[in-house]
Amino acid sequence: MSAIYALVLLFAVIAISRRNRGSDEPILSPDPKREHRLNIALGGFALFTAAILFYFMVSDFAAGRDMRAISDPNPLRVLIKGHQWWWEVQYENAVSSNTVVTANEIHLPEGKAVQFDLQASDVIHSFWAPNFDGKKDLVPGHPTSFAFRPTKTGTFYGQCAEFCGLQHAHMRFTVVVEKSDEFQKWLTAQSQNAPVPATELQKHGQQVFLNGTCIMCHTIAGTPARGTLGPDLTHLASRQMIGAGTIPNTRGHLGGWILDAPRIKPGVRMPQNVLSPADFQALLAYLEMLK
Amino acid sequence: MDDSEKISRLSATPTRVSEQWFEEPHAEQLDHVWSPPRGFLGWLVTTNHKDIGRRYIVTAFIFFLLAGILALMMRIQLARPENHFLNPDVYNQIFTTHGTAMMFLFAVPIMEGFGLYFVPLMIGTRNVAFPRMNAFGYFVYLFGGLMLFGGLLTNTGPDAGWFAYVPLSGPQFSPGHRVDIWADMITLTEIPALVGAVEIITTVFKQRAPGMSLNRIPLFVWAQVITSFMVLFAMPSIMLASGALAMDRLKNVNTHFFNVAEGGDALLWQHLFWFFGHPEVYIIFIPGTGFVSTIVETFSRRKMFGYPAMVLSLIATAFIGFGLWVHHMFATPLPKLGQAFFTGASMLIAIPSGIQIFCWIATLATGKPKLKIPLLWVLGFIVVFVLGGMTGIVLASMSIDIQVHDTFFVVAHFHYVLIGGAVFPLFGALHYWFPKWTGRMLNRALAQWQFWLFFIGFNLTFFPMHILGFHGMTRRIYTYLPETGWGNLNLLATIGAATMGISVLLFLINVAVSRKSGALAGENPWGGSTLEWMTASPPPSYNFLHLPTVAGRCPAWENTPETPVVSGLSTTEREVLTTTILDAVPEHRYEISPDSIWPLVLALVVGLDLLWMIFTPWAYPIGVFVGLVVLAFWFWRGNEPGWVVEGIMSTPPKSKTEQLALKTEDAKAPSHH
Questions:
Q1: Which of A33, A81, B125, B144 has the fewest CB atoms within 10 Å, i.e. is most exposed?
Q2: B369 to A159: CB separation less than 8 angstroms, yes or no
């Protein structure tokens, strides 16, 4: 295609470089022979263009078919729900209590076909992990799915590709592709209830969480916290990022997020929180043990 | 295509024969009849197509500057990762207003402004067909534009994107009045688009100079006509969509067109929007091709090569343009096979565009090209637009599109196509016709600086965006993380944008200086081929002392002092000649409406009413009633055309002056029809 572009430019340059020939008198009856030749050239050019485009079209169909031809009768199924502005991730399991619910971080086994079932819970989002495949819109009222097969281990990033409001820019996610056994280990760990607090500080932190406003929106499996407006925090400490890929999951960032998330991500549903220093330290200690 | 055979059909054209019974027109008399009253009142009541056209062009250019300033603000915000120049709330309002203003307030209206100004001149008539409706259209457009920017300045700027996808733009996720402003502004700017389309189609089909058969219409005019037909089919779709959205949002009405919970559908919006939205691109680009064809013909000093191919390409583009809207929706849950059809259609449209490029280059190659400033812009157009066309083919391919869709690659693509296809030709056109408007030439040195700064700045801004798209930078994000590594290319783009800003400033300086002190232009400084160059610069209120007749495609090159002219039109009334659609044989005289204040009043009623309708549905019946009252005054007897006479010289007019009536009684001229 760049060759065609270069050719067009070349012709344009040749055409214009023949300037200032003779008088300014306009040519009203151009040489009919040359016009005829030009007409034939024009026809040839149109046919040539049509042929190239036809070739492109056919190869596009072929490529599209190949991309969709993932024949695995039993793919790993991952349910993705788009929320303003984070991703809910569910790994279904025949035993419903073993269904894994997490957020903004997707783990995938290398070499296994994976089918994403996509749903939007509020506005339109678009699920896109650039290193794997194209994007797919999550349209309310139109649940959909698509599949790909990750072939390389590593950590990759994805993001929402359809404008979805104030924090569209910070609606990212992490994709971790790992060896099959590591993935199974991860999945089993995620399906467990949250660890029980061991130290006094952690126990105090759990009380801060359960007695505060946190439980209005968040779930921690194995505790009375059953909120569903925000991400599931059962295994929060195992995740790499917080705020849908906004900041890394470190103690400092997590603390800042808890106290004043709207400053970091203006418009986020998570409110500011006022905590005494003791409660704050305890809460951090508790959250950090939720591996 | 034989130009000479047609002239024989014109032998009975009302030439000077009719001087027997009609006064020879005098410039002063005609000017008296066709000029609006002097002073401020005249400014409000004028229905002259040149006043209205110029207003569209100037107003649209001001909106271009404002939307350009918004673009610069976005570029400053994105120059560095995690920049804090704009917060997300302001950023979303700004990118929405930028897109909306560029599409609805700049690109479409400025093209239409050129059409309304030059179509009557190029086809040799004195005004458009419905001059009052024309004035009405402009005022409604102005109101819509002020509403959008008024909203932005009062922190009520729309913030759901120029495409306003539901449910984000619906009542649940966009409370407040920001999106209401958007929805009603859409309606307010589509009315003038439709009005302009009706004006141009009617004027071109019924008011062409005798002899200007369909195959002699200048390509500029063809482009305007074809665009107008596209407007007629595309704009109702968006007005329907924005009207339904406004009703979904309106308190106490609360329809559920797009409310998924109540059986509405979110994809319906996208279909309606893009059924308009994709043709919109061609509504902007086709008039641009009209500029290019005009400029290429004039400066290559030869008749355009491949005229039939050019016209057919434009018509083909207009048809295919309606068949590819789904390529904006490849990522949505639609059936793949259906999408494949739209891949085919999207690729197909490259063929007519390619044919046009071929014809322009062939014309230059076989002519005697003179590299004046307007031609420079055309060459810039070819370089930029063809690249945009190439990336367009990439986007047409569904399997590639879903990867680069909604990334900066798309931003790069459509700026190459739209700035390349419309703004480059537009600057060429502004330079080309500036002497016609003002009687003076623009400064060549400044113009050259402007071109090169714009060309370099444009490529600096938008070329890196292709690469950013490949690296995964999505659109409509107000910031990005430093780890992404997108910072340097973004900084480059910002520097490019600033360069473009300087270039546009140079243009403004050039206009300001040259309109007072530029070299005098005369009637036809470039040696142009079309009729507008056969009258004074700037053209008088009545356009031509004698309406011309036409014997070929390039009247300004072909007509001689012996070429017949039309006379016999009233010199005391605003009268135009109507001709047949195919061959432009004179049909009858038609008196058009005089100036009037009522278009302005009706525009105010419509504008204020739509504004009011944001708050209450009662605005609708009340507005209709008040509108009808105003229309009653508009059409009050004595205001409307007095009479229409069948046959050019058969029936004498009920003339206002006794002298004329006496003369006409003797007239026994042949009737055609």
A1: A33
A2: no
